[in-house]
Amino acid sequence: MKIKIAPSILSADRNNLQKEVELIEPHADLVHVDIMDGKFVPPTTFKPEEIKNIHTSLPKDVHLMVDHPLTEGYIDNYLDAGAQSITIHTECKDDILECIKYIKAKGCKAALTVKPDTSLDTILLYLEKLDMVLIMSVNPGYSGQKFIPEVLEKIKQLRKLKPELDIEIDGGINPQTIKEAVQAGANVIVAASAIFDKEDRIAAIRELRASAEQSI
Ligand code: DX5
Ligand code: ZN
Predict the structure, then answer these.
(1) Apex CA 178: angle with CA 175 and CA 184, to 5°?
(2) How do residues 91-102 score in pLDDT, each as one tens digit?
(3) How far, in Å, CA of 191 to CA of 170, rounded?
(4) Which pTM was predicted?
(5) pLDDT tens digits for 28-77?
(6) End-to-end CA distance of the chain, in Å?
(7) Pocket probe mutation, ligand 1, options 5, 10, 197, max atoms within 8 Å of Cβ
(8) What residue spans define the domains of the chain?
(9) Is the CB of 10 under 6 A from ligand 1?
(10) Superfamily name with CATH number, domain 4-214
């Protein structure tokens, strides 16, 4: 499957988001946007306007780490900000099926994700309705954490079930861990610190892609 690289702007310069995204645009496949509500996870991140103000040809891939994606308006806000895919957690407190239906009815791709300790079964229930599944390889909340290799089993299981599904991995990805992720079956790769903590973001993306493509 084609490898898609999704730089996460969580580690980008927040005061220069447009410039940061313009720089990576020719080299990336998606731009990953991490949204946190201060409840599901302690931090809070971007405001909808900050994301709406990013003008890019890259699809905005929005990852909602929030308790109430639908009933507190997060889905609406990020649809309005130009999301082309929205991922919600099975651990959130809204009705999962209602969220998936709502996102899809708006013409957006719907994805589900789980924290590292949550069973894949919570996703399998909805599998036929999903455009993508995200497997988290760190506990959500912060960039720069260490990759948790045990989650690779979930990716292997999912890839067996769905040979064509977009399977995204998020957390602790670097030129080494990306190899394990791709070998397990992930094809959409999120990376924040491995790209935006580097002086040369373009070289960092190239290194990740080369490393991934060697592992297919
Ligand atoms: C973590 C976020 C990730 C994070 C990844 O809660 O969902 O997208 O930005 O950061 P790195 O790539 O540095 O682990
Ligand atoms: Zn994320």
Answers:
(1) 155
(2) 999 999 999 999
(3) 7
(4) 0.98
(5) 999 999 999 999 999 999 999 999 999 999 999 999 999 999 999 999 99
(6) 8
(7) 10
(8) 4-214
(9) yes
(10) Aldolase class I (3.20.20.70)
